[in-house]
Amino acid sequence: MNLIALLVGLIVERLATRFFHWRRMRWMDRIIDAGFRMVEGFANWPALIPVILLALLLASPVFIVTFALGDRLLGFPYMFLAIVVLFFSLGPKDIAEDVDEYCAALQAGDDEAVEQRAKALVEGDVPTDALERIHCVESAVFVQANNRLFAIIFWFVALGPLGPLGAWAYRVTDLIRRRAVFNAGRDDVEHGNSARVRDAAVLLHSWLAWIPARLTAIGYAIAGHFDGAIGAWRHAQDPAPTSTSEASEMLLARVGVGALALHEEEDESLCERGVRGASAANKLVFRLLFIWAFVISALTLYGWSV
């Protein structure tokens, strides 16, 4: 059932673009903020403990429903639940859609739109230099592919019968991380607790992203230029990462760019270079998605045959 649910979920994720705004789940921000306020009551505790409790609380409804359904009606209610949970766990936005909007802004020469689309992919400020921004966006595509897609698939498959819980738990930690980073950037001066919560939320999310990030990096090497990707993996990052989250993101970025192995072309404008690089990065991610689907299908069928 997990294989069928995964394949259907990926197809729905590609086709149901008009419903992507449902996945932003802004209503959960109030619940997360309420949880953050509760953290202030545990000032003597490490912030990681109440953040973990908040994540468990938000993930518990999916666990309860998954456990309650079991194998009822030959597992079809479970499969429906898995498809729905996958739809809301993936994203929140489709990478291909973000890349298409970024490329369209480049071709239209709309600098403001280009900056907005680039920030959406990078999840932060982007360089003012056009070429540096192009490289930054290409790296961000590989990082976001793990966060929005491959890490969810990994935990969905890894937890077997509790696959929906794995996918949703990862998305919950990402929602908490995003909100904590936003709050810390907005009112860190007024609320010293915000930075403490942000660091705990980022750390929790990085733990769940660590294994999928390495598997995704290996996948980039297989789906792209192998020698370039392995060479980038072995190359020591300078400056050295300061956290687990930063180490995973740097690894994904440099291995992805190495696997891309783009060569500069003569008489190519910055607009053409930006479109070519972002499109190539998106195609590499899509190839890796097909590889993951094939491997997961083969492992599942082998398991059935045994």
Task: Supply the key terms.
306 residues; mainly alpha; 12 helices; globular
Characterize this entry briefly.
The chain is an all-alpha fold and 306 residues long. The chain is built from 12 helices and no strands.
Describe this entry's structure for a reader.
The chain has helices at 2-15, 28-39, 48-69, 76-89, 95-108, 111-122, 130-158, 163-187, 193-223, 226-234, 244-260, 270-305. It is mainly α. The longest helix is centred in the last third of the chain and has 36 residues, at 270-305. It is globular, with a radius of gyration of 20 Å. The chain starts with a helix and ends with a helix.
Tell me the fraction of residues in β-strands, as a range.
under 5%
Query: Whole-Å distance between the termini?
Result: 17 Å
- Indicate the structural class: mainly alpha
Major sheet details:
none
Task: Give the topology string: H per helix, E per strand.
Answer: HHHHHHHHHHHH
| Residues in helices, as a percent range | over 70%
- What is the count of β-strands? 0
Alpha carbon gyration radius: 20 Å
Query: How does the overall form come out from the CA principal axes?
Result: globular
Number of domains: 1
The stretches of 5 or more residues where confidence is low (pLDDT under 50) are: none
Provide a count of the helices: 12
Overall average residue pLDDT: 85
